Automatic annotation (TrEMBL):
Keywords: Signal. Residues 1-28 form the signal peptide. This is Alpha amylase inhibitor. InterPro entries: DUF6355. It comes from the Bacteria. Pfam families: DUF6355 (PF19882). It comes from Actinopolyspora xinjiangensis.
């Protein structure tokens, strides 16, 4: 009799946990604005990002230059020193990713 109670209890707990997980995931979904009504310009992300056809790196600090590693598709990867602001790296057809290597230049 004890094993049946444990099985029922475990089943109920599993269902409750699953419902909680579904509710948490549903509430964590980002809200989609009905239209862009904000007067603030879109913020450029820090680090590597892509636009429609361009690969770029945004170094958000305003007083340093850093070394990034540029991961290319067709050529050998390379490092590059970038200053504050957005640096154009090339076409997204040629650039796969770029990342900070941990040192200044």
């Amino acid at each position: 009799m004890r094993s049946v109670f444990n099985l029922r209890t475990m089943t109920a707990l599993t269902i409750a946990a699953g419902s909680l997980l579904v509710a948490t995931v549903a509430s964590a979904a980002p809200a989609v604005p009905s239209e862009a009504s904000s007067n603030e310009p879109a913020r450029t992300p820090c680090g590597y990002f892509e636009t429609e056809h361009d690969a770029k790196y945004n170094h958000c600090a305003d007083n340093t230059h850093v070394v990034i590693n540029v991961d290319t598709i067709w050529a050998r990867d390379y490092t590059k020193c970038v200053g504050p602001g957005v640096t154009y790296l090339g076409s997204t057809d040629d650039i796969r990713f770029a990342s900070y290597v941990g040192r200044t230049c």
